[in-house]
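My current task is to audit a protein record that another person submitted. My question to you is simply how this chain folds and whether the tokens agree. This is what I was given:
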Amino acid sequence: MAVGQQFGWDPVEVDGCTVLRPHGELCALNYRSFTDDLIKFAMDVPQALIVVLDDLLITGDTSLSAFAKVWMRIGEWPGVPLLLVAASAELRGRLVTAVVHRFVPAYATMAEALVAAADPPLRFRSSLAVAPTEGCGQRARQFVERTCDLWAVPEFRIDALVIVTELVENAFQHCRSSEDMVVRVELRDELLTVAVSDSDPREAVLREPTSELTRFFGLHAVAQLALAWGCAPRWPNGKVVWATLPTARRAMWPGRRAQSN
């Protein structure tokens, strides 16, 4: 996990945060792989994701928008704060010129970044490993139902059960190995998120039904119910598909959107 496809990352944990020190050259040719790698680290849901830029060669200010892109991708879920550390005043100035600082704060020292990350929003998380067998959907539903009862959020239960059923069945249909799927449930900022990870790296996409199918694929149901949903890569391989549901206070928010690679 320490080394991405084109970058060395050298991840360490500090006060619950994942601190990354990427080294290599960030340019237009590897912009996509860089953002994918950063998103994978966020899928582990650390308290914050702190990226130290001192050993990274950044070719062109356009490449700096990679950090804004990652911020947009992880903002809805997993909702992990992204912070940058740059000892160089010149590099911090480039972040301002590229307008990255409006989305991703940059600090001169690690100590300053850790102070900024010290007060994260309250969140509850629970997860369950589910073997890819015929009964996986039922086990996932039972887990989500127990979790909603435990957290006293009954307004989520019906939609959450539909979503976890569709996500688990979709993963089961496309899984490539006997490796367990992982169902995660999270409550944060008046949103309940249901996420399912599996070892298949292929992106989850909406597909229209064919003549052989009698109903839409499960992601259509997920897209209809969720405030937002998305698909993200994970370490060391595979993907995470997630969907968020609003509480009653956020249920009237207009528009549902998908976020994916």
